[in-house]
Amino acid sequence: MADFDTDLTQQTANYAALTPIDHLLRAAEVYGDQLAIVHGSLRQNWRDTHHRCCQLAAALRQQGVSRNTTVAVLLPNTPAMVEAHFGVPMSGGVLCTLNIRLDVEAMIFCLQHGEAKVLIADTEFASEVAAIKQAMPDLYVIQVNDLLGPEEDDYGHIEYETFLNTAEDLNNWVLPENEWDAIALNYTSGTTGDPKGVVYHHRGAMMNSLSNIMDWDMPKFPVYLWTLPMFHCNGWCFPWTIAARAGVNVCLRRFDPKVCFELIKTFGVTHYSAAPIVHAGLANAPDELKQGVTHLVKGSIAGAAPPEAVLAAMEKMDFEITHVYGLTEVYGPASVCVQRPEWLDLDISGRAAQNARQGVRSHLQDGLSVLDPITMEAVPHDGVSIGELMFRGNIVMKGYLKNPRATQEAFADGWFHTGDLGVVHPDGYVQIKDRSKDIIISGGENISSIEVEDVIYKHPQVLSCAVVAVGDEKWGEVPFAFVELRDGVDLTVEALREYCREHLARYKVPKHFSFSDIPKTSTGKIQKFALRNQAKAIVEAATTP
């Protein structure tokens, strides 16, 4: 037997830590003149983008940022957000992209829990920054005056462009010491009121950035429209993916169908990713906006199955939609509903049924299976037997920050437990049937039913409550709150809704309320399956002519 180990060691000449930073370095080296970022009147190539990322990294290191320092950003989809995805990890820091839709109390929790030392914030969030600074006076704030953002008085320690220009040594940036080093920190609501900090590593970010390319057969120089928030799972790793293909980041501060169609036509957008609400917004836009789109546009959809009407409208526009599935814990999409040639022979209803499934594992994800969570045995591929969807492999988080118990539970028996229940069809495609964690996916954002319930329970006139998901034509799903009131009180739905608005982010406020008795088991456990049926019946009755 030959010895394939002695003197055949890992060393500098034959090994380098995997990191998506290398995508930027190569894009600048090989395609420096290629357009990298479009934003308003800005046209920035890859050479200049690399230069600015080096400036950001060097300036952050001068400010004291080093390995494992959390650098948070509160930014819409702007050039600064693209640059942060490279400049922050090049400083050795860990990028924490705050969900801009959160209420300020939740933002403060994330910043304090992640021990952020620096915050890079857009002027759109001046009021939130004021509250954050009160709670965290030692936080170093960098103010971004985006060219399409609102004008605000100075509220940071320094302005972003000025901060970049403080960089003295542009070679003062680093690659990770180990590909297992943290690159990003993303907060997810999970099933509790307090968000959980999901830690990404350089290896996983690199792997998913490449998996995106292979799953989508993405060619060189794609033109990518940022309809997906970059704060959400680091834009599903697409800031790094686009650099790997030397593509164009077409920035978008907020979704607007008219603006999107203008950008698609002007810059020849080839790809975009989004929640169902964005796809529906494009599909339902006036026909005059769609005129002039003469090339194939590829979109990916996640969060809920693409409705038949949306798929039909997209096909009419010559948009090709791919359904993907994942969670924050698996870097965004980690499975894909690979479309088969034979599906083209089906009618639109048949194709919609096939595309509604979560599909198969992504190229660089080691495993996706549906297992009995008790026995850990795979369920039969019969499309009927229910189990829990589980992932394992390179595209799985390091774990939850400062939460070893949750990490251990999530990784029990060598798999990441998603909490989503589903089946496997005879062709091997996975499909979700229910969410055991009672997460509500509204407009692509996760809402913890427990968090909403906790707020409603605190109202002095509420005796009991339960929140479930109900289908919604615009948002995919919305919260429906069932509420039992204390005897003798007089509380209106509008008053309770206003109370929720005061204590929750707007998108988490229930769209529907029902004051009624809540069904419970003999042991007092709320029967949420019954409430889901009730919610569906109430909404359908209200919308039936």
Describe the structure.
The chain is an alpha/beta fold and about 550 residues long. Among the domains are: about 230 residues, Rossmann fold; about 100 residues, GMP Synthetase, Chain A, domain 3 (2-Layer Sandwich), CATH 3.30.300.30. It is about 30% helix and about 25% strand. The chain contains 18 helices and 26 strands. The strands form 5 sheets. Strands 2-1-11-10-12-13-14-15-16 form a 9-stranded mixed beta sheet, with helices on both faces. An 8-stranded mixed beta sheet has the order 7-6-5-3-4-8-9-19, sandwiched between helices. β1 and β2 form a beta hairpin. The longest helix has 17 residues. The protein is globular.
Give the helix/strand layout:
Elements: H1 21-31, E1 35-39, E2 42-45, H2 46-62, E3 70-74, H3 79-90, E4 94-97, H4 104-113, E5 116-122, H5 126-135, E6 140-144, E7 158-159, H6 160-165, E8 182-188, E9 196-201, H7 202-216, E10 223-225, H8 233-236, H9 238-244, E11 248-250, H10 257-267, E12 271-274, H11 276-283, H12 287-290, E13 297-301, H13 308-316, E14 319-327, E15 332-336, H14 348-355, E16 360-361, E17 367-371, E18 387-392, E19 399-400, H15 404-410, E20 416-424, E21 430-435, E22 439-442, E23 445-448, H16 449-457, E24 462-472, E25 476-485, H17 493-503, E26 512-515, H18 528-543
Parallel strand pairs: 1-11, 3-4, 3-5, 4-8, 5-6, 6-7, 10-11, 10-12, 12-13, 13-14, 25-26
Antiparallel strand pairs: 1-2, 8-9, 9-19, 14-15, 15-16, 17-18, 18-20, 20-21, 22-23, 24-25
